[in-house]
Amino acid sequence: MKIGHIDLGDRPVMLAPMEDVTDESFRLICKEFGADMTYTEFVSADALIRNIAATTRKLTINPAERPTAIQIYGREIEPMVEAAKIVEAVSPDIIDINFGCPVKKVAGKGAGAGMLRDIPKMLQITRAVVDAVSLPVTVKTRLGWDHNSKIIVELAEQLQDCGIKALTVHGRTRSQMYTGEADWEMIARVKENPRLTIPVIGNGDITSAARVTDAFDRYGVDGVMVGRASIGAPWIFAELKAGISSDVRLPDVSEKFECLRRQIRESVDRIDEYRGILHIRRHLAASPLFKSIPNFRQTRIAMLRATTFDELLAILSYVENEILPRLSLQ
Fold first, then answer.
1. Inter-CA distances, 325 with 74, 233, 285, 310, 321, Å
2. Catalytic-labelled residue, pool 30, 101, 162, 259
């Protein structure tokens, strides 16, 4: 699969853009476990052109994680064009436009998935950004605003006509948020449209190697994007790739714990101890490493309340070296 001149190989598996999740450290770890492409946290066009420090920091790309897309969002044409030019100056591989974020603070203000209620402006923004930069531009969006407005098949053609080089479709409407099951039949209808020639990337409920295989073999997409299933489990890319290739080596439990320790350490180094630990709690809370441990509630509470690097590492060491070995003997 190619996006412009970027060759992602056959059946690529990509890391989805997620706010407060896909920072530079996490993206690189996912890349090391087999992610074929990474996306930054989404970047506000308005904040970027105001040179807000917390926003400009999101533009940092480690060369080892490439190819990488920087994703931008906004609701007005001129700020989006200006933001795209700023992004182009830091040389990502791709610029992605977010027309899919469903959260109220974004969609409720007309940006992200909110743009699904104003298709003419969505198309104007897309065309203006494509015309303003030389990098490949892609779009990530949803099926439509709600059950009664699943417009994605027609919309995909319109976006292609604006000049985008690939389209990612999350198989839910904005109204669904992240509830229910992703509608992959609808994603397949987008791909089956003979007028559509750009790659179609499917997103939604990619949690296992079997679902990856289904996405390619049953629904015919060109690539898949993994979002929430990677939180606290960046090694999922190795597990998903193992379903495609027999050459993939799966990490053991010890390597997974070391991965979490690395995330904590790099988060603390990147921000500071207090805020770095706050940032990483989402990964710890979601990690499947702890989900099957019986009577784990008190240890989980302690882990998520830890406020120092040493305290948190001591709890992880206790779980890895004391709790898990006892379970294996039962």
1. 50, 21, 21, 22, 6
2. 101
